[in-house]
Amino acid sequence: MYGIVLIAVLAVTGGAIAYIGDRLGTKVGKRKLTIFGLRPKHTSILVTIITGILIVSSTLGVLSLVSRDVRTALFGMDELKARLSSLSADVATKNQELEASRAELEAKTKEYSGLTAKIKETAAQLAVITDELSKVAAERDRTAASLKQVQADYAQARGDLTKAATEIQALETTKKELDARVTSLNEAKTTLQSDVDRLNELTVNLKEGLQVVREGSILYQAGEVLSTSVISGASSREDIENHLRGIVYSTNQMLVNKLGLNGKEVNVLWISKKDFDQAVDAIASEPETAVVRIAAYGNTVYGEPVIGSISVFPNRHLYSEGTVVYSQVFDIPDSSKATEELVLRFLQQVNAVAIKQGILADPLQGTVGSISGAQFYDTVNKVKRYNNGKIEMTAVANGNVTTVGPLTIDIRVRNIN
Predict the structure, then answer these.
(1) pLDDT tens digits, residue range 253-287?
(2) What is the number of domains present in the chain?
(3) What angle do CA 146, 132, 174 make, to 5 degrees?
(4) Of 299, 297, 391, 401, which is closest to residue 339 (Cα–Cα)?
(5) Which of 297, 314, 331 is the last residue of a domain?
(6) Does 300 reside within a domain?
């Protein structure tokens, strides 16, 4: 209804202006009036042109006043295009994220399908061996029956003792061979059953991993430190390998306990042979001791193995007990909040200096140590005791510190006038 009224108004307005223009043109033509020194004919044409301009201008004006879309089309097209481009970029980004998630889900699904096929194959092998075991057991029973019959014949036919004894010995040998075969098949059956149980466990873990991938829960972040140890480099390569295997095993058991798999022999931590050998070479090249740090190679969700990486650093003596780590002079702050911020800023400077000196920092948090809340507020209270002038804050090592850290400090505060 609104559009019909608008069209009607525009039609009436355009018709009125056209009528007025026509009347003006007629009067100008009859009276032979001129504008700007033009001939009457040209003046009449100019009046007609002006009338057309007024019709168009009035039409656009009315449309702009009553329609927000017309105003946008006339004056806001650039802004609309920019907004459309931004929305298109956002849609493309979301599509890429969706494709990445779909690819990861497809990879997990393929892995699950592979494990299911392997379980079926192992189950088929188990069925074949079970069938063969049944046949061998039946043959053994028949042989045992034959042995009993031969023994009975031997008792009955004492005259042919040599022949019966030979047959008994042959049958006993055959029985022993069949017993050994039965034992071997039982062991193979036990091994295959263990493989089936392990594959079923991996399948359950993979299902849980697929669910976690959909939910986006991360158990370990990329670069998160799993364990840190110190190992001597002045040993034989065999001793270094055995010690490093022990560190990897201890780290794996720690992860097993953390995941609630206590008492289970599960390989949660996976480290490549190449990474292990490179770590052994790096440790062997150190004249004294080296720091061995095992960290998560990438983000790990529950149900997936933890892919680990081994980093080796030389273990150096950096600070002795009582050594000044960092010292700085400050103006005494004028409020409690400013005092706390001052102490925090000082601790950040100490952390940066210690990292530069060579202490290994936590890859995720970037810290080389920590202080208790009591020590922090004790330092804040020491600063608050001074009312004016300047103070000097000094961080002193509270014990011998090596590359592996952590750094523990005492903070000393004194007034400078």
Answers:
(1) 887 787 776 666 677 788 888 888 888 888 888 88
(2) 2
(3) 35
(4) 391
(5) 314
(6) yes
